[in-house]
């Protein structure tokens, strides 16, 4: 198990869910199931980086590996049904954490949307660099290093926005140059080694890992973190090309399209029921959007949906009992508080806390 | 259409000045409206034989291919050449992508469409297609039609019906390797007359065939490393397992062999593209790969192929070594063989087929199904009986042939069908049928092993297998005939001084521009 990232990610995920979720929740998280509960858990427990990391493994395989963790005495599965790290598991995990050093990466992603945003930012950047490197040197035909068609279409769009190709390349070069100045040498290596151009093939993560004497998984997580940190500092004035790559003419944000529409209607003064009927959606869906918005938009005020009194009460219970199980909180807080209200407060509390929660 | 006109189009679209051997005959046959079977060696420029006509014929050209990853690559390459009206549709697409492509199709913006065979079993999709004028129907990797072929696909057996429904366009069947019995099967299935077969010589004159006998695994590793130290790259070492490819790469790295990498189907798409690119750019000299590598790429200067594990049969072997020296320069094919090497490919064959207990469980549940329409998802097949897609497809195909189910149709994530009222078969019958398939595969494996263990001329063995007689060669023939290894040795000492890392230089290399 030592050095095998699938066991590490499973154990880490189980520990971060803190015994408050059952086995399927762990599996959904690592397989990247598209589901509001899973996405909300990511924000609550700060596990967004792990989301979908083991998507290539089947449910069956994951169960197998979890059983192996159990027989090694690292985790316990109770009839509750929940799953948690044993003392031995926590000890091992501490060692693995020490070896793998990805805390900074985990902290960088408060919600799944941020991970998706960073991944797409990187793919677009990688492809635009490759395209401009070829085109400015007179080569029009090359094998693109990104397979996803939507990314290719987006990059095409960005490419054609600036008719002067030489100028676009020069701007991008300067922006990357300035970015590199802010980084450590090994961070620059990860980014620049990964790029492909006319006379340079990009390296795979394990290949970069060989240069840095680190595993490929570590390299990939660090790259995602670097992308995320860069996105946060982008401005239209100082880094116009990178800004364009990140936001690609979309409204700045990480909301799903459907939630964006709901957000728009909210801002124009509609209530939840009104939005549901306007858009022909179920009430539950609109509520899911509301929770999504509260997680992704720190400036969004939830007070009009949960009054200050209730917010205070719910936060008290979270702090006193150390639980984030919606059912438990509902039971403890008593009558008059809805699940939606609890979800909103829990989500907001997690975002404010910066999500990285360490047990014990 | 005149040859002169087509040659001009060839230059315009693809930048070539003339056709390669066999290509013109095939294109001529298509234009004459003849259903045609073309057998062209790997790297002989098969795909051009339909790509060029597709751009000039009045209607659309459909290409059925079993290789999903290859489809995307082909489309990518054509678009890279500036040829835009090409697309592919297969079951790996998301719903949105699929709808986007179907829209393009309806708007007449596609001239050349790659398809996976199961899409043609989807009635709704077939109806869409039948609204269009189809000029040419291409069956790529046509050997998949044959029960005797090394790569039999059940979906391929159902291709004639869509051809009729699409108004009987001209059919072009393409394959790189076909023994006479496979050839007969293809012709029968697709209604191609025997005199419409266009066949290129299988003998690759610039490849030297060698088999090196080793005692055991350790010995094999050492021989492999020895070769890698000596041979002029670029080259490929083929494995039958992902783990094998990864471990060999690790070993080579520790032994100081530079510029090598591994490649297999378990890697993320982007990582695979990067390795391919590095290999094409000669940044890599050696790839440790499974058979997933090589199909989509067009690299003419591969100098050697080593087989660390035994392929499943002669056709696969010839296809893989066929990637050597497409530029005509002599190259070296070597198979490392130890006495136990037949075991792994045998195991892999057995694993491809459902196990008796699985079939028993499956039939038990099948007999309890209602008589109405039923859908069966891949997920369910996997979770309930542990079937792979291929295994489930085999079983359903068998049941369909026995009239136990009707209207078998491929869906997004599985199949739909109606159970007939006939009683389900005895499990022994099913086991027998699967065993028969397995026996064919084992026979083919044993034919390859016989060739490996033979002491006579290897080129003669290959040509005999494909029932040809050309034994000509350049440079070297084969191990038993004697090989002068000096011509395959490294000319330039590859691993010079490693360049010092300088990030500003790397950035400047990407964009060699200044204000
Ligand atoms: Zn010979």
Characterize the structure shown.
The complex is a heterodimer of chains A (360) and B (515). Chain A has 360 residues and is mainly α. Chain A has 3 domains: 5-100, Winged helix-like DNA-binding domain superfamily/Winged helix DNA-binding domain (Arc Repressor Mutant, subunit A, Orthogonal Bundle); 113-251, no CATH class; 256-353, Arc Repressor Mutant, subunit A, CATH 1.10.10. Chain A is 64% helix and 2% strand. Chain A is built from 19 helices and 2 strands. Chain A has helices spanning 5-16, 23-31, 36-45, 59-71, 87-100, 103-107, 112-135, 149-161, 165-181, 185-194, 205-212, 216-233, 240-247, 257-267, 272-279, 283-296, 308-321, 326-333, 339-353; strands at residues 75-77, 83-85. Chain A has a two-stranded antiparallel sheet with strand order 1-2. Chain A is globular. Chain A starts with a helix and ends in a 7-residue tail after the last helix. With 515 residues, chain B is of the alpha/beta class. Chain B folds into 2 domains: 3-199, Rossmann fold; 207-346 and 476-510, Rossmann fold. The mean pLDDT of chain B is 89. Helices cover 41% and strands 16% of the residues of chain B. In chain B, the strands form 3 sheets. A 7-stranded parallel β-sheet of chain B has the order 3-4-2-5-6-1-7, with helices on both faces. The longest helix of chain B has 27 residues, at 427-453. In chain B, α2 runs parallel beside α3 and α13 runs antiparallel to α17 (427-453). Chain A binds chain B through residues 56, 58-60, 123, 129, 132-133, 136-137, 140-150, 166, 169-170, 172-173, 176-177, 180, 185, 188-189, 192-193, 195-205, 207, 210, and chain B through 72, 76-77, 80-82, 97, 253, 261, 266-267, 269-271, 273-278, 280-281, 283-284, 382-383, 501, 503-504, 506-507, 509-515. The complex binds zinc ion (ZN). Zinc ion binds next to α18 of chain B.
């Amino acid at each position: 198990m030592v050095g095998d990232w699938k066991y590490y990610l499973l154990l880490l995920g189980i520990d971060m869910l803190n015994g408050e979720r059952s086995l399927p929740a762990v599996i959904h998280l690592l397989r990247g199931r598209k589901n509001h509960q899973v996405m909300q858990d990511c924000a609550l427990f700060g596990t967004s980086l792990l989301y979908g990391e083991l998507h290539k493994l089947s449910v069956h395989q994951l169960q197998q590996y979890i059983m192996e963790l159990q027989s090694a005495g690292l985790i316990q599965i109770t009839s509750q049904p929940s799953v948690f790290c044993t003392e031995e598991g926590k000890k091992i995990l501490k060692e693995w954490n020490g070896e793998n050093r990805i805390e900074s990466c985990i902290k960088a992603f408060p919600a799944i949307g941020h991970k998706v945003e960073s991944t797409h930012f990187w793919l677009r950047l990688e492809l635009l660099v490759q395209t401009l490197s070829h085109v400015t040197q007179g080569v029009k035909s090359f094998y693109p290093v990104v397979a996803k068609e939507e990314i290719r279409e987006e990059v095409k769009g960005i490419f054609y926005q600036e008719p002067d190709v030489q100028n676009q390349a020069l701007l991008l070069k300067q922006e990357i140059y300035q970015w590199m100045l802010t980084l450590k040498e090994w961070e620059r290596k990860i980014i620049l080694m990964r790029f492909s151009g006319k006379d340079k093939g990009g390296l795979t993560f394990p290949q970069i890992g060989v240069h840095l004497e680190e595993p490929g998984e570590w390299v990939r997580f660090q790259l995602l973190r670097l992308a995320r940190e860069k996105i946060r500092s982008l401005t239209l004035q100082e880094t116009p090309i990178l800004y364009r790559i990140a936001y690609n003419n979309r409204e700045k944000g990480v909301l799903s399209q459907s939630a964006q529409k709901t957000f728009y209607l909210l801002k124009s003064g509609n209530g939840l029921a009104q939005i549901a009927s306007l858009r022909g959606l179920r009430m539950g869906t609109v509520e899911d959007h509301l929770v999504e918005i509260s997680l992704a938009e720190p400036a969004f005020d939830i007070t009009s949906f949960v009054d200050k009194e209730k917010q205070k009460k719910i936060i008290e219970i979270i702090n006193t009992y150390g639980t984030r199980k919606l059912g438990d909180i509902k039971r403890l807080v008593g009558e008059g508080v809805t699940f939606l209200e609890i979800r909103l407060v829990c989500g907001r509390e997690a975002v404010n806390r910066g999500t990285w929660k360490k047990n014990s | 259409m005149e040859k002169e006109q087509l040659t001009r189009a060839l230059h315009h679209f693809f930048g070539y000045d003339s056709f390669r051997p066999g290509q013109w005959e095939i294109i001529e046959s298509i234009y004459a409206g003849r259903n045609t079977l073309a057998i062209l060696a790997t790297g002989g420029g098969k795909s051009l034989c339909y790509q060029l006509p597709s751009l000039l014929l009045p209607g659309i050209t459909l290409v059925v291919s079993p290789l999903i990853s290859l489809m995307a690559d082909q489309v990518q390459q054509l678009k890279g050449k500036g040829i835009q009206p090409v697309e592919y549709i297969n079951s790996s697409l998301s719903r949105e992508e699929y709808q986007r492509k179907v829209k393009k199709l309806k708007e007449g913006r596609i001239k050349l469409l790659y398809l996976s065979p199961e899409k043609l079993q989807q009635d709704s999709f077939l109806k869409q297609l039948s609204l269009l004028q189809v000029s040419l129907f291409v069956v790529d990797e046509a050997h998949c039609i044959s029960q005797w072929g090394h790569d039999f696909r059940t979906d391929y057996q159902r291709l004639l019906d869509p051809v009729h429904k699409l108004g009987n366009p001209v059919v072009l069947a393409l394959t790189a390797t076909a023994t006479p019995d496979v050839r007969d099967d293809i012709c029968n299935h697709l209604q191609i007359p025997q005199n419409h077969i266009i066949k290129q010589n299988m003998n690759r004159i610039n490849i030297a065939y060698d088999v090196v006998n080793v005692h055991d695994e350790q010995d094999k590793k050492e021989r492999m490393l020895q070769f890698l130290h000596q041979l002029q790259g670029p080259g490929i070492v083929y494995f039958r397992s992902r783990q094998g490819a990864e471990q060999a790469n690790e070993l080579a790295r520790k032994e100081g062999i530079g510029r090598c990498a591994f490649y297999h189907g378990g890697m993320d798409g982007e990582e695979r593209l990067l390795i391919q690119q590095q290999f094409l750019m000669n940044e890599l000299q050696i790839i440790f790969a499974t058979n997933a590598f090589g199909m989509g790429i067009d690299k003419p200067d591969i100098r050697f192929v080593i087989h660390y594990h035994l392929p499943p049969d002669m056709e696969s072997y010839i296809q893989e070594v066929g990637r050597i020296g497409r530029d005509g320069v002599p190259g070296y094919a070597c198979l490392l063989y130890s006495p136990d090497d037949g075991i792994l490919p045998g195991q892999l064959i057995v694993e491809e087929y459902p196990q008796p207990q699985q079939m028993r469980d499956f039939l038990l549940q099948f007999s309890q199904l209602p008589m109405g329409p039923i859908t069966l998802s891949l997920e369910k097949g996997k979770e309930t009986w542990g079937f792979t897609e291929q295994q489930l497809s085999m079983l359903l195909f068998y049941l369909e042939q026995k009239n136990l189910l009707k209207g078998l149709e491929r869906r997004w994530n599985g199949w739909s069908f109606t159970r007939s009222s006939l009683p389900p078969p005895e499990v022994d019958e099913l086991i027998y049928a699967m065993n028969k398939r397995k026996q064919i595969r084992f026979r083919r494996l044993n034919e390859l092993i016989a060739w490996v263990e033979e002491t006579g001329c290897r080129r003669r063995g290959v040509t005999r297998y494909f029932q040809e007689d050309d034994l000509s060669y350049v440079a070297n023939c084969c191990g038993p005939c004697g090989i002068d290894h000096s011509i395959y040795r490294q000319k330039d000492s590859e691993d010079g001084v490693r360049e010092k890392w300088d990030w500003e230089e790397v950035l400047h290399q990407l964009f060699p521009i200044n204000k």
